[in-house]
Amino acid sequence: MHRHSEAAWERTVKVQDVILRAVAKQITWWQAAEILGISDRSMRRWKGRYEEYGYDGLFDRRKGKPSPKRVPLQQVEEVLRLYQDRYADLNVRHFHEKLGEEHGIGLGYTWVKLALQGAGLVKKGHKRGVHRKRRPRRPLPGMLLHLDGSKHRWFQDDRWYDLIEVLDDATSETYYAQLVEEESTRTVMAALKDGIERKGRFCALYNDRASHFFETPQAGGPVDRQRLTQVGRALKELGIQMIPAYSPQARGRGERRFGTWQGRLPQELRLAGITGVEEANRFLRERYIAEINHKFSVAAAEKGHAFVPVGGSDLDRIFSVQTERVVAKDNTVRLDNRVWQIERTSWRGTLAGCRVTVCEHLDGRVTIVHGPHVVARYTAEGQAAAKKRRAPRCGNDAPWKAWKSQKADFPTLSTALGNPAPTPSAGFPHSHSVGGG
Prior knowledge:
Elements lengths: L5 H18 L5 H8 L3 H14 L19 H13 L6 H12 L5 H10 L25 E9 L8 E8 L5 E7 L4 H15 L4 E4 L22 H8 L3 E4 L7 H20 L5 H20 L18 H4 L2 E6 L5 E4 L2 E4 L13 E6 L5 E5 L2 E6 L18 H9 L7 H4 L21
Parallel strand pairs: 1-4, 4-5
Antiparallel strand pairs: 1-2, 2-3, 6-9, 7-8, 9-10, 10-11
Helix pairs in contact: 1-2, 2-3
């Protein structure tokens, strides 16, 4: 008889007590299985072993026998060495993928996780919180997009950057991901403009209540939908609905994706030897966004999409920071301690007293608009841009005025051909009768 531990004896006594209660018909056998935390089938096997072997049949028969699924010690040492020497900053899932892709080691994810935790190389996960029900995805791409930023040390040094991402709710496909100094009105507009230019106009945008998305009169309170921000004004012009999120849990899909970015992108940048923002953004555009979408995007519930072509919309003007100003008497506009001069227009003597809109574009250019007219253009350096020469249009009134002033001398078709103009007396009646001949 094998020597068993004290814990094994206690477990066996508990199992015997439950079996004896079931034999005495104090409880049913399925209730006994529920108490022991086993299936009905396992309960029947334990009952049979107790009837055949008595008390000894209740001990765990796996004690002292090696597992048929055991991993050789040399492979265990290789896995731990690879993690310590090369992949110490990867999360377990990422490391497990590298083992299969780069080193041909086909161990299970659970075994790798338990091995790293047992060696003290990875901390054990936190206990799960309360049960929450996941919000179902939208059925079509383009119905709902997530936009958010994640501040992190993406280069694994003292530099902090924001990763701006645009994510589709239906497929978890990333349409845009770039590193910026800070999430702001301009960087958010750049992300939206890029996505709309490539995919089309979408239905709704789901995001947090940051100041560049919504005006919130009271901290933590509801948003004021009457007071639009620059981003809100741009999306309203395009007919896109904005949906505010009131908790991080409400943005769970986007928050989980940022956990994936933080657990993978810094390590991929290190392995690729990238240390600069421009090079990292090029790496994202040309390679890594496609890799993330390949691994984590899912198929939509329905076929098709909800994107709509933007048509003739002027996205360059819509996605600009717009400010209204009144033109001074000297036809100047003042904005941010800068004075912009408006030159004379051909359709109005002066714009003094008129209300105009100053559009600061994402590339630094500035245009001043009055109604449908662009009355001034400036380069990113603040210099007046050369006026665009417009080709003559059909309907120009100059030829009409010239023809009208010379109407009496304008030749007819007959005189142009050298024939005198016919008169009624020459055989051209004023009216014709039907059937005459």
